[in-house]
Amino acid sequence: MHIMKAIVYKEFGTTDVLQTVEEPKPTIKADQVLVKVKAFSINPMDWKIRKGEMTLMSGSKFPKHTGTDFAGIVEEIGSSVSGLEIGDEVFGVVKNMKDGVSAEYVAVTSSLIWKKPVNISFAQAASIPVVGTAAVTALEKMGDISAQTSILINGATGGFGMFLLQLLKQTGANVTAVTSSRGVAYAKKWGATSVIDYTKENVLSRQAGYDIVVDLSGKTGYENAKKIMKSSALFLNPTPKPIQIPLSFIKNLFTSKKHIVVLSSPSTKYTDTLLEAVRNGLDIEIHKVFPFAQYKEAYQYAEQGGYIGKVVVEVN
Ligand SMILES: NC(=O)c1ccc[n+]([C@@H]2O[C@H](COP(=O)([O-])OP(=O)(O)OC[C@H]3O[C@@H](n4cnc5c(N)ncnc54)[C@H](OP(=O)(O)O)[C@@H]3O)[C@@H](O)[C@H]2O)c1
Fold first, then answer.
1. How far is the CA of 217 from the centre of ligand 1 (A)?
2. Which of 114, 117, 156, 222 is most buried (CB neighbours < 10 A)?
């Protein structure tokens, strides 16, 4: 039996519950591909699941791997898979919150891996699926956008914001980015028309001037944001509580300011849009790469915040 190293946890908790184990290398089904993982990216969802905040979707069965999007090299191909060869450099995602990619090898459904562009690193490719798809989904939810549309992105220079700002740039919209002092130059480079440093100014003290508010910080909330939204503005919420999903649908029938839930699911359609943007120069900023052996430090670092773009763990 072939053995590999993996990062798992056997109970919910802080980074203290993460541990390295040796376990059998996965075997693949006919529609799967075995990938030797070179890098996986860290997403806030990883620690929300690990802390037991998403049990409705993640379940409570242990041990659990962590991590959702990854990049690596094709090692084995299932009998019904076409279009890939052993040795191809790929990136992809596990869609099911019960799975995780924090191991030397991962078995993935072939519809959720794509060839890595040659001009980006494994770390950059591993950073595309989760936040990239979320950004394209948010853009879709915004509907028709013109140069007159005034958009506020709160928390604009993390992973999600980095993609969303650059995708919005192509629309010509008037985008205000809210970030910390270290993110100001990045927000401007990625296309923000104006930037608010949240360490110096409270965005909620502004006038009701926005057609769309996207809260990526998870700290503002719809009720607070209403005061800076125009009368028929949209509030995009990518971190809804389960109850908000049906509730917002009902409440929106009676209010002119709408609460819109953003839930994304990676697919080839979204990835094609993102790969096109990467070909056109979309910048994927990797703030820090940690070696596999330092995965705990990687998660502690990412959870603390204060970084631009993405934090990635490199495997081998
Ligand atoms: N629904 C979906 O499908 C989906 C998909 C992907 C992500 N998400 C969610 O979307 C959110 C953003 O994801 P992400 O990957 O971009 O996370 P991230 O990289 O941690 O970015 C969050 C950003 O918020 C900023 N921030 C923190 N406090 C703030 C404040 N008081 N005011 C303004 N900005 C503040 C942070 O800046 P500093 O670190 O400099 O403080 C950081 O840049 C997360 O909650 C994530 O779980 C949802």
1. 4
2. 156
